[in-house]
Design a protein that fits this description.
6-stranded mixed beta sheet, 266 residues, alpha/beta, 4-stranded antiparallel beta sheet, 10 helices, Rossmann fold
């Protein structure tokens, strides 16, 4: 059996010593060249889990491992060459062109104050072509729509040429066409050997993309395993504390819930 690319071992995390525990004795293993979806209610620690996996936060206890080695043993540029992050949103303070912004993803390969070279520009252009924005690379990022900005964030992460790509709610700002494009892109990345981990509030996105599913509640992994085993009415109802039903429609799994209006008309 292969070594997990990313492991969390009995991780406990609080943002401040006096704060509530965000992650509580959490353990999880991410297998290489897989797509893992993380589902759970707001506030269960999904984004925090990604930040710990990136090395941007350190647990109060427990350990995070990358390729079997403590994440803290890697230098910052080494982590940047191995792991990319696509955040939900990002404030852009300067009037970068799209290409200039994507070139920021090449920082882990450059010395301090070193300017990007031809190889870096080629990597950035390939990333833009992958997400479908190569034709507008000179446009200012500040003039883009929310969906286009999201694709720029994906391109910047791809410019890092990571082996592990972490995405926080990646489909939030995308229209249907760009959502389908992103899902196809993530499948292609997996086929090329990249490991993909993403959080989402859309169970149907997890159902069409992921091969592994993590269900979180109360700062812990409640269930984890293959999508086939975990994407069930019982498991999702337990995770969200809401009665839901999983049905198959046109060969795809969809989630149906009953709201208050339904109950009033029973």
């Amino acid at each position: 059996m292969s070594t997990p690319i990313l492991s969390f071992e009995n991780v406990v995390f609080r943002y401040q010593p006096q704060d509530h525990t965000v992650l509580n004795e959490l353990s999880l293993q991410i297998e290489p060249a897989s797509i893992t979806a993380i589902l759970g209610p707001n506030g269960v620690g999904k984004t925090t889990l990604l930040l710990l996996g990136l090395g941007w936060r350190r647990p109060q206890s427990g350990q995070v491992l990358l390729d079997g080695k403590d994440l803290l043993s890697y230098r910052r540029n080494e982590l940047g060459q191995r792991i990319g992050l696509v955040p939900q949103t990002e404030h852009i303070a300067y009037d970068y062109s799209i290409l200039e912004y994507v070139l920021l993803g090449r920082a882990p390969y450059l010395m301090p104050l070193e300017m990007p070279g031809e190889a870096d520009c080629r990597a950035a252009q390939r990333a833009l072509a992958t997400v479908g924005l190569a034709g507008i690379s000179d446009r200012p990022v500040t003039e883009l729509s929310g969906g286009e900005r999201q694709l720029v964030l994906v391109a910047r992460a791809l410019a890092q040429q990571p082996r592990l790509l972490l995405l926080d709610e990646p489909t939030n700002h995308l229209d249907l066409g760009n959502k389908i494009h992103l899902l196809e892109l993530l499948r292609d990345l997996k086929d090329s050997g990249v490991t993909v981990v993403f959080t989402t509030h859309e169970p149907e996105v997890a159902a069409v993309l992921a091969d592994q599913l993590v269900l979180m509640r109360d700062g812990k992994v409640q269930h984890a395993g293959s999508l086939q085993e975990q994407f069930t009415s019982e498991r999702l109802s337990e995770t969200y504390d809401t009665p839901v039903e999983v049905h198959e429609v046109a060969g795809r799994r969809v989630v149906i819930w009953r709201n208050g209006a339904d109950k009033k008309h029973e």
